[in-house]
């Protein structure tokens, strides 16, 4: 889990640095209709962090196995109005939630990581869900923030 926490810490430093050197046009431009801007991508990552922090806590607290529910990612981005918010506010939210996730991850033991959950009718574990969160985060950062193409 230490490697996961270190990777998350790296992104919490790197992503704001990347946004600081971008122009407003680069941050807000949508590459095509129904595609997210970089600002909306980081907003989506805020939503993902919020949802996953709750999952990481509930798996430890709810009846086993915890059933992971989904959410309408596209609708959440639209409803939260990330495109209209200052990028500094979005980055502050994303950083704060992920710092809380780091705290939670630092306090998990092997037994807790093995706690079961069900996602898409498949048996998984809390450890698997955490790794899935990190892969999702890295995918969006690599392919949509660090690159020019932004897709929903």
UniProtKB/TrEMBL annotation:
Keywords: Hydrolase
Protein's organism: Lysinibacillus capsici
Entry protein name: Metal-dependent hydrolase
Positions of the DinB-like domain: 17-142
UniProt cross-references to InterPro entries, sorted A to Z: DinB-like, DinB/YfiT-like
Organism lineage string: Bacteria, Bacillati, Bacillota, Bacilli, Bacillales
GO molecular function, one term: hydrolase activity
